[in-house]
Design brief:
heterodimer, A: mainly alpha, 65% helix, B: 248 residues, Four Helix Bundle (Hemerythrin (Met), subunit A)
């Protein structure tokens, strides 16, 4: 860490600083100008508001689940209600929060700017994807209001097709529709990244955030349609009784598992890859160094996308797949750890001898590094066949994927929201309060989920609403942690809303970062750039930044 | 290849006739870039469609290997004359679509409208014949569900079928075949219906003269979609209708 300065934040003089009068927010007025917009930045804000809404609904269910598990007896909710709680928690958090979280909000906002484009290639498709998201979300809420669904988020057959009388069809259609929103986002990103880059913006000059979203988009485009057809077949099986997965007709429920996880395992990487992109940007900016091994980090994203498609059967080790295929899938699962580790090591080396400062996004990024590493390592445990048989369907699994999804992805999402908040809104969030929130989240998270590893190892199964009395101490710890975690998530919600009006004016480049998005005004103009930028420098080139005055791109008041 | 698109604006400054086109959307530098982005997007979308149908083709592969006898007998229940006619009808529809793209490229509005109408007409004939086939399956109780009947497969000679009798548990598996038949051809038909809806929209725009001045991207990209739907059928027809047509 630099001895002379503990922060890189460089704000304009607050007495004279103003938000530029002309920007994408003030460009047009009225609700319709937002609901019919083609501007990627406005659509990103629509997404940000909607996914925050669904996050808090999903979070409320998590709170109820943890409250029920405070005591060994079933005293808060009935077992059926408990099943519905964890199902809705899963569906909302996976499909309505995690999958679109970083790509549809931050990605939508900054990817076109990062590559020097005026917008995504298909603005109308982008807007359509938000509407599909909302319609899918409404279906999910309808399933909830009408009485819920209790299949678990995995829609496992034949439970979902034959044995339940809940709103599987409504929820299934909801997920089907949200899937198309995700497909269209991915498609838009891929075409934009291929065809819309500014002059001089070669593939290896792109920020790593763009690379990782590109890799995630490939998975969205190739994986999601398989989920779509699987859900169609489930819905058809429930409604008109065709028999593709029905064992009484000779159908194979395991086929459902294969098709479902062919999407849903890559979906894990769809969720985490954009988060990894956020971390690359932040670590580089707050270390004042180019990301160590830029091309290794870029290719590791693509490698994760490729390997990610060939590991799905590790969800079926106990379901009677052949031992030989279990062996192969176990090996492939462990291989995914390699590109993930490449990223972690490269980020660590980026910080080595860098001028590390500890602004809020960096604190979240540190949280990500530690928690994702634990989540990833426990994934290797679960990829090992013997361990998997002991640990599968226990709280160990629950803790593992929450470390990756919440400890990894949610930390990355919050890191990114803080990092780009000055660009999105033109104002800073309150620094010390946000540091407190970041630390609170980290502590709350560990208190919630570390005990669950032990619970799972001791044999507490997931998806039960009561448990033997000897597990109570660890469960109480976990519930207490969830409360702290809840506060950690409420805080940003409140102070970010506060900062919209009262935050300090951020100026164009509060972090003194190199990305193209930091060279334009905050909040940006509707078409981002006054004139198309010409790129003749590498990403994260902090020397170039020092000479930037010669090639100032744009500032308009 | 990609860098060729991301050229600096000043190198294209002389191409004023490009930028003058009203169809050029504000966020593209050149019409060339816009056209390539559109086509690329359509190809990617077709890739997602391959994955979508791929799930069902995978299920087909699995069950055909497991229940081959049931699949053969059930497949023989499908009508080759109707299926064959439909194949020809659909290829003809695709042919007119291709002519439509050509007509748009040579800026002949009347021809374009004519070819789009013919594309729609042949598409509608396909769906009509498909309806006849579905109706026949309904009457013979070959639609999966409560009214499904395996008697013809257990005792084919009593119903005048020249087939090997199947034991009841294998005969039950014919229901899997028909489940896949309806799921696959149903999804294909749904794509046709959506396609015909889009064709009517393109027809209205063609009549308005939108594609008479060299702007052909929507026609071209829709053509890709329509041919994709044709190609799906060219896989469905042999896989569903022609499994093993040798008499016993």
């Amino acid at each position: 860490m630099s001895a002379t300065s503990s922060t890189i934040v460089n704000l304009p003089d607050q007495k004279t600083a103003t938000i530029p009068k002309k920007n994408y927010i003030t460009a047009e007025d009225g609700l319709l100008s937002w609901l019919l917009t083609g501007d990627h930045k406005r659509i990103a804000m629509l997404y940000l508001i909607s996914i925050t809404f669904f996050f808090f609904i999903g979070g409320a269910f998590a709170g109820l689940i943890r409250l029920e598990l405070l005591t060994p007896q079933a005293d808060l909710v009935a077992s059926d209600t408990y099943n519905k709680l964890f199902t809705m928690h899963g569906i909302i958090m996976v499909f309505l929060f995690l999958v679109p979280s970083v790509p549809a909000t931050i990605g939508n906002f900054v990817i076109p700017i990062m590559i020097g484009a005026k917008d995504l290639a298909f603005p109308k498709v982008n807007l359509l994807s938000w509407y599909l998201y909302m319609v899918g979300g409404l279906f999910t809420l309808a399933a909830l209001v009408l009485g819920g669904v209790d299949t678990g988020w995995t829609f496992t057959t034949p439970l979902s097709t034959h044995y339940l009388n809940t709103h599987v069809v409504t929820a299934g259609l909801g997920v089907f529709i949200i899937g198309f929103s995700s497909i269209f986002t991915g498609l838009n990103f891929i075409v934009t990244i291929h065809r819309m880059r500014a002059p001089g913006m070669t593939w290896f000059r792109m920020p790593l955030f763009v690379w990782s979203n590109y890799a995630a988009s490939i998975m969205m485009v190739l994986g999601t349609p398989v989920l779509a057809i699987t859900l169609v077949l489930v819905v058809l099986e429930r409604t008109i009784h065709i028999g593709v997965f029905d064992p009484t007709l000779g159908g194979d429920p395991l086929l459902f598992q294969h098709l479902f996880w062919f999407y849903s395992h890559p979906a894990v990487y769809i969720m985490i890859l954009p988060g990894m992109g956020v971390i690359s940007e932040i670590i580089s900016t707050f270390s004042r160094k180019r990301v160590f091994g830029y091309s290794a980090v870029a290719f590791s994203s693509v490698a994760i996308a490729i390997f990610g498609f060939f590991v799905w059967a590790h969800h079926m080790f106990i379901m009677g797949i052949s031992n030989y295929s279990a062996l192969v899938f176990s090996l492939l699962t462990m291989l995914v750890a390699v590109p993930s580790a490449i990223k972690i090591f490269n980020w660590s080396f980026t910080m080595q001898k860098g001028s590390v400062t500890f602004e809020t996004p960096m604190i979240y990024a540190f949280g990500f590094l530690g928690l994702f590493t634990i989540g990833g390592m426990t994934g290797v445990f679960l990829g090992a066949l013997g361990m998997d048989i002991h640990l599968t369907e226990t709280y160990f699994i629950v803790a593992h994927f929450h470390f990756v999804m919440v400890g990894g992805m949610l930390m990355a999402f919050l890191a990114g929201v803080h990092f780009w908040w000055p660009k999105m809104t033109g104002r800073m969030y309150p620094e010390s309060l946000s540091k407190l929130a970041a630390v609170t989240t980290f502590i709350g998270f560990n208190l919630t989920f570390l005990p669950q590893f032990i619970l799972g190892y001791l044999g507490m199964p997931r998806r039960y609403h009561s448990y033997p009395a000897e597990f109570q101490v660890l469960n109480v710890l976990s519930t207490a942690g969830a409360t702290v975690l809840g506060i950690g998530y409420m805080l940003p919600m409140i102070y970010l809303a506060w900062s919209l009006k009262y935050g300090a004016v951020a100026g164009n480049n509060p972090w003194q970062a190199t990305g193209l998005e930091w060279q334009i005004q905050s909040p940006p103009l509707t078409e981002n750039f006054i004139e198309t930028p010409v790129i003749d420098y590498e990403a994260y080139d902090y020397e170039w930044l020092a000479h930037k005055t010669e090639q100032e791109v744009t500032t308009v008041g | 290849m990609d860098n060729a698109i991301a050229v600096a604006p000043d190198t294209h400054a002389e191409d004023h006739h490009h930028a003058a086109l009203p169809q050029l959307r504000h966020h593209f530098e050149t019409e060339e870039q816009q056209r390539e982005a559109g086509t690329f997007g359509m190809w990617l979308f077709l890739l997602t469609e391959i994955m979508f149908f791929g799930g069902m083709f995978f299920a087909y592969l699995l069950y055909r290997n497991w229940y081959y006898d049931a699949f053969v007998v059930a497949s023989n229940q499908l009508s080759i004359p109707l299926g064959g006619t439909n194949t020809a009808v659909l290829i003809t529809s695709g042919f007119f679509m291709a002519l439509g793209v050509w007509a748009a490229e040579v800026r002949k509005k009347g021809l374009l409208v004519l070819f789009l109408v013919l594309t729609i007409a042949f598409g509608a004939v396909f769906l009509g014949i498909k309806y006849v086939e579905y109706h026949e399956k309904w009457e013979k109780h070959h639609v999966p569900g409560a009214s499904y009947d395996i008697k013809e497969f257990v005792n084919p000679h009593a119903y005048g079928l020249n087939e090997k009798p199947l034991p009841p548990d294998m005969a039950q598996k014919t229901q899997i075949f028909f489940s896949l038949y309806f799921a696959m051809t149903g999804m294909h038909a749904l794509h046709m219906i959506i396609g015909i809806g889009l064709l009517f929209w393109l027809l209205a725009r063609a009549q308005r003269g939108d594609f008479s001045s060299g702007y052909v991207a929507p026609i071209e990209n829709f053509g890709l979609y329509w041919h994709f739907v044709d190609i799906v059928w060219l896989f469905l027809f042999p896989l569903l209708y022609l499994i093993n047509r040798h008499p016993v």
